[in-house]
Request: fold
Amino acid sequence: MNLVNDYLDPVAGGDWFSDAQWLQALLRFESGLARAQADCGLIPEPAAQAIASACAQVPLDRDRIVEQARISGALGLALVKPLQQWLQAHAPQGLPWLHWGATTQDAVDTAGVLLTRQAMQSLLAELQSLINALRELAQRHAATPMLARSLLQPAQITSFGFKCAQSAAALQRSIDQFAQLAPRALCVQLGGAVGNGATLGKHRQAVEQALARHLDLEACGHSWHTQRDSWMRLAMEVAVCCGSLSKLARDWSLMSQYEVAEISEAARGSTSSAMPHKRNPVHCMQAVAQTQAVPPLAALLLGCMAQAHERALGEWQAEVAHWPELWRHAHGAAAALRQAAQTLQVHPQRMLAHVAGLRGLVFSEACVHALAPFTGKHEALAAVEQLAPLALEQQRELQELLMEWAASRTAPELPTERLPALRRALARACDPQEAVQASQRECLALLASRSPTLSEESPAHAEHVRACL
Reply:
């Protein structure tokens, strides 16, 4: 446990790579390997049973394993030694076959896959819950007008629902990508000393497939111990997903500012030691803090791909050390935003107040389009550009200033009888409920769309992906 890090995790979870879990996963590999080799007729069944018993009963001293791994530079080898000692004492018939045909990286990589699958399942559950909450917000606020901001400045009208639907769609695309990448990445590693499976020979693929069945993983048919592209693509999708989470957290934190106050997180008691009035967006803060570490982590992991020849000298070891951090940060960010979304308080009147406070400036483009049929586009554009600053300066509505300008023109240019039609056109152009319709349509279109990832695949592949996830 780490006090400084754990308070940023809103569910105090994400511990899928603990020492105990690593050791258990390594033991599962050794037991599964022996059973797979027995299934293929390569080792005696009693030997496989003895190795399985050793993996189930061997006492492990975590600190001693670490110390041995420091000396040898191989974590898997440090685990093999206590297994050898147990077999020597209790079931020597298994001793010649323990870890046979494998190397320590086979054990650590496959154990890492087992733990990563657990981490991904937890992340996917949080993402799906967050998507569900975002979709509910999007449905409820599809036509709730608010200012869209461009370069942090007021731009046009959008809807809060559309913003939620866009975030939900981005996160759904990450889930789709995980479904595509998981079968290629969550594979057993079984290549032996240099990746060619020399000890197992022509039986390597059969043993790999049997091991995959025992561990409920995939068999990719080749060694990937130094060619880690499929594995790394999975990590990069985690990073991309964190980018989407970070964008949502940033937007919501800006909207939660007191001066903006368009949304707020649910009250949870005091959030400041010195200022009792404050209502800090704690969940957004947690999500931002969690995702902040991900870009450098992604770069670090990519840098670990340059592995020398048939066994890395430091790069793979660094990858294994930092890989868990990526999943913990992603899970923490998703959990924080899920909690924020499920209890989020939306303030539509405040959103409308910000629109009204701009005196129609956010409708300037629509005003040009409304005015152009009456005056010509060039004149309409010039009039809006001239009068827009006055609307704020004089605290008057832009459409009123435009009507005064239009009425002052000579009759041949704009006959008086056309002024009522122009007034109606400008009123529609400056109506937030009219302006929000485009965002409402896009929001509902996103909500109506469904991920085609599984439905477009063959039934066998779809079932295979579900099993991986």
Summary: The first helix runs from residue 3 to 6. The beta strands are 145-150, 153-159, 263-264, 345-346. Residues 270-276, 452-462 have pLDDT under 50 and may be disordered.
